[in-house]
Amino acid sequence: MSGPVPRALVASVLAGLLVYVQPAGAHKTARTTGTTAAPPVPAGPSVPAPLPVLAPLSVPGGPGPRALAYVAELHSDSVSVVDTRTNRVVGTVPVGDGPDSTAVAPDGSTVYVTDSGADTVSVIDAHRGEVVATVPVGDEPSRVAVSPDGRRVYVANVASDDVSVIDARRNRVVATIEVGDAPLGLAFLPDGSRLYVANAGSDEVWVIGPRRHRVLGTVPVGEGPTALAVTPDGSRLYVSNLTSGDVSVVDTRRDEVVATVEVGDGPAGVAVLPDGRRVYVANTVGDDVSVIDTCRNEVTATVPVGEEPNGIAVTPDGSRVYVTEFADDEVSVIGTRRDRVVATVEVGAGPTGVAITPAESGRPGWSARRPPLGGEPGGCPRPVGPRP
């Protein structure tokens, strides 16, 4: 770790996170950094006609259902669909201006895409491989998350400091939650009882009760919290702090930081393996991925990848990690057995967020026994004697 990353440098590197893409002729000020946003991005290469995309399928004799990775491409105004079995693009779906992040419904049937330049969310039917609805939300939507029951979709609007709540059945906003300065990351506990919101401008994570949309508390973390990931047992929340170059580990039972892990330069996307034992962090300035052991809360490996890694997602079986590379227009595939890059996939221009279809029928892709919600992290040895 070479030291904290200056906010101005981060703003210039992370076009999809802190410098916003605007429609033609528009020009806004980035509220997170206090600097002027970059001018509109020139039109990218033409987007090919969308290919038919099918929801995850079970292949006879195969290792399980096909998992699809949906990659938001900020400069192409499109989403590439990657078959994680073959590491090939099997579809391209045109969406709104400046797509920044993606999220997949628990049943894999629907994909939600934040259009940061259009202030909308594009709703993709995964079976048809096309946009079936466009939902207006707040200013510059940056992140999206689907509730565990699939009934609500939550969108972090970085410029209006709020979260839009979409009814997934009717595809319309039914509530707006005021949060902190420049909300970016979103994550649910597995049981859906709490929503966590990372506010990059105020260096804190807000805890929301989704049932009544009430703020239950705030958790101070590092500088520039950008992305969130919860362990499968719900015991820990991992927060990537873009500016301070570290990851805050939050105990979700007490909602307080219990450890801070130094990682690479400019940590952005963060993801947890399905067994809860490792966390992968995309370091957008360092051009690598840090691997954190969740039992020891320390980095055990560093994986070099392409330029400006940004979004990150894990396959349901935990065998591979997909990392978008904003400057290279590629996705690196990391094999988790040896923590090294095993494939590279060419996608559209400016890939940012990535999401992968969940395990079949909502079942996790691992067989480890889960401790009760809020207990010790899964897979970690428990101390001898009574718990404090």
Order of helices and strands: HEEEEEEEEEEEEEEEEEEEEEEEEEEEE
Radius of gyration: 19 Å
Compute the number of helices: 1
Rounded to the nearest angstrom, the distance between the terminal CA atoms is: 34 Å
Instruction: Summarize the amount of helix as a percent range.
Output: under 10%
Tell me the major beta sheet: 4 strands, antiparallel
Write the topology of this structure.
Blueprint: H1 7-13, E1 68-73, E2 78-83, E3 88-94, E4 99-104, E5 110-115, E6 120-125, E7 130-136, E8 141-146, E9 152-157, E10 162-167, E11 172-178, E12 183-188, E13 195-199, E14 204-209, E15 214-220, E16 225-230, E17 236-241, E18 246-251, E19 256-262, E20 267-272, E21 278-283, E22 288-293, E23 298-304, E24 309-314, E25 320-325, E26 330-335, E27 340-346, E28 351-356
Antiparallel strand pairs: 1-2, 1-28, 2-3, 4-5, 5-6, 6-7, 8-9, 9-10, 10-11, 12-13, 13-14, 14-15, 16-17, 17-18, 18-19, 20-21, 21-22, 22-23, 24-25, 25-26, 26-27
Describe this structure in words.
The protein has one helix at 7-13; strands at 68-73, 78-83, 88-94, 99-104, 110-115, 120-125, 130-136, 141-146, 152-157, 162-167, 172-178, 183-188, 195-199, 204-209, 214-220, 225-230, 236-241, 246-251, 256-262, 267-272, 278-283, 288-293, 298-304, 309-314, 320-325, 330-335, 340-346, 351-356. It has 388 residues and is an all-beta fold. The strands form seven sheets. A four-stranded antiparallel beta sheet has the order 3-2-1-28, with no helix packed on it. A four-stranded antiparallel beta sheet has the order 4-5-6-7, with no helix packed on it. A hairpin with a 5-residue loop joins strand 24 (309-314) and strand 25.
